[in-house]
User: Fold this.
Amino acid sequence: MKKYIPIQIEPKWQEKWREDKLFSPDMDKASKPFYNLMMFPYPSAEGLHVGNMYPFSGSDIYGRYKRMRGFDVFEPIGLDGFGIHSENYALNIGKHPMDLSKVTEKRFYEQLMMIGDAYDWSRTVETYKPNYYKWTQWLFLQMYKKGLAYRKKANVNWCPEDKTVLADEQVIDGLCERCGSKVELRELEQWFFKITDYAERLLKNLEVIDWSQKVKIAQRNWIGKSEGATVKFGELEVFTTRLDTIFGATFVVISPEHQFVAKLKSEEVKEYVRKAKKKSELERKETKDKTGVFSGEYVKNPLTLEDVPVWVADYVLTGYGTGAVMGVPAHDKRDFEFANKFNLPIKKVVEGDNLPYEGEGILVDSGQYTGMTSAKARQEIPGKKQIQYHLRDWLISRQRYWGPPIPIIYCDKCGTVPVPEKDLPVELPYIKDFRPTGTGQSPLASVPEFYNVKCPKCDGEGKRETDVSDTFLDSAWYFLRYPSTEFADQSFDKQRTKKWLPVDMYIGGAEHSVLHLLYARFVTMVLNDLDLIDFEEPFKTFFAHGLIIKDGAKMSKSKGNVINPDKYIKEYGADTLRVYLMFMGPLSEGGDFRDGGMNGVYRFLQRVWGLQEKLSAISLQLSDQDLRIMHKTIKKVTEDIEAIKFNTAIAALMEWLNYLSRKSQESRVTRQEYKTFLLLLAPFAPHVAEELWQIVKSSVVSRQSSDSLKADSKASLKTDSWSIHKHSWPQFDKNQLEEEEVAIAIQIDGKVRDVVLTQKDIISNKEVVEKMARESAKAQKFLAGKSVKKVVFIPGKIISFVTSAD
RNA sequence: GCUGGUGUGGUGGAAUGGGAUACACGCUCGCCUUAAGAGCGAGUGCCCAAAAGGCAUAAGGGUUCGACUCCCUUCACCAGCACCA
Assistant:
């Protein structure tokens, strides 16, 4: 027998699969389309590491399984190669990102082929290619036409290291998501998408999609809906969710950016505002100590009719509500601190324990509303109902080079003019100096050949927008492009999209819970409103995988803990690495990579390999026990794959292999068992399963006399492909799962003392089982001197005696 | 602070109301081998020389004939949000 040497079989099958277009479904004729998508990677020249490979393998197992279940599975791959991440890497190693992209693309695709995933290699998508970003720009134009893309001057997050603005979602704890620098506030003219128009829909649809609770909650928090009311204190309008506490409002606080501040003459106020504006967002949020200054003005509390002082303080945020709040120190922690610091009066209006009391209760000292509950008072007290969202508009311009230029032209006569669709793409020129400038403008702003253009409307002098768009815009629609890659004249074909979308299974990282996943949902909703697609949610099911870490930290080149799969693939094969990664634990949990267990998995595959020559030469009848474990394994593996619990599916295969190995010593393993085993193994270890399948398939098959696998046999006759990966998945027969003999545990006062063996026909018969249990010597020992108060019988499982001492 | 999650052998983990520790790693012993490796076999939660038995799922309490699983309290760790009025 040939030895199992993975590198001798894996490339061979990878090539054959590709040649035969085995994993390229007929996009127009497919009768049972299944879109199986894995988040496409950011490529880097370092190449793919084990941390990337982990979820790809998980996604591929699911896809291969679905294909064997008869679906036309579409499993595409591409590269999210535009953006700061790739550009920074190019800067680091002193190469031009455009040149570098060619190298990384080659390297990444080579590695992705080596791990043997069932991708449709005829439909790759790279976001940095003009034939893709042409349509990203087109998408921008649709947003613009619909009034959802707008430009405004705003206080925006500025990363001094990456020298660009960032969206709110890309600022983590006041630090840049990419490089970790402290983010500053800068007032700049920027392009935004009006995602806030969709806040309610983004929130509401969460109820109907099959996503993990974790991700839904993260999105819900981010959208941050709160229901309250606005009330006028003189000319100042405040927003509150606790209208019931208005009688306790003893002052009003406005943010340093509030319009009202302009009217104030006091030097002290001006100084405070100047200082506050200079602070970074992080510093403003970090400071626990309240700061503020009295404005010198008073406004009237509309309910108490008292004049209350107006203060300016930076704990009030500009971008939320009206930028003004009523200060209720007795019932708000922050107002309480503020009042204490500046000696402002504290007036209790809700019954409660210690101040500040933030809970609900019965109102006191609140005029005609005294005695009402908080909830009732909120209904009764006059105010304009208002809903506020934490979500802010998506800032999409970037002052960088490596992205799609925003397709806008400014003309002195015509104003802001969108680039006509026929002129797309606005190609990103190859420029020598692509480094970020730090001036608030993109490097493209120093390239006159790029920005000097004719106005498309009046043919006069025009200037191009020189900012590029956020990488997250590239990835917000890529799933629409995959099925339509061959259409040069449209972003996505209507029929294709109708056939393949929404995505049936999407697997990706939980770190994208509020970035990519929210943007993609938003874009999909807009396209739905534009009548370009007939669904509002892009991903029916989303599964968040865990992370593979190394020595307790996420793999990254800077930490020097990157595990390259190449060496393991060479030594053990891609199959072993896949199975090892999946066997580590549930896909949702990730884990710490140690190669210690790899040998065990390798050994497992070797034993599978070795079994081929120990098969029974003659046709044997399978025993009841043989049949039971076979059907039990089919059931377990099937259900576990559906639930994405690959680790226990693999364990079930190992158990069956152990059983078959014992049988093989007497050459009693049948071809039927072995073939079934290979079919179940195929999604996990596709190369070795294929190799062995070809060996056992080609030898003469004597039809098993047992008809227990009838469904499978019939299906196999229908199969037109040579490959195991197109063969139909084995079916289990639940009649074969029942055991002839069942051991029922005897429990006495909660402790298992013995078991009784019962035949199939009596396992539900309480009287008989109880009699047998009472005859057990061990049971008698523990029942001696006690009287049985109660007997609980669970058929097939347990008989439980409850006693009391005599 | 708020929200959600997790906590089981030396290690990764299994079991979601019914025999805790499946499956694997590691380790120990044995067989095989000139030797190493591989392979094969046995053992491996803790206490006890062993048997019998007892004790164990972060800690404590509760519900139940029966709890890793459900409920309450506490602790630890992880993730997301956080001066959002």
Residues 61 and 684 of chain A are 6 Å apart (CA to CA). Confidence is low (pLDDT under 50) at residues 700-718 of chain A. Chain A has 26 helices and 33 strands. The longest strand of chain A covers residues 149-159.
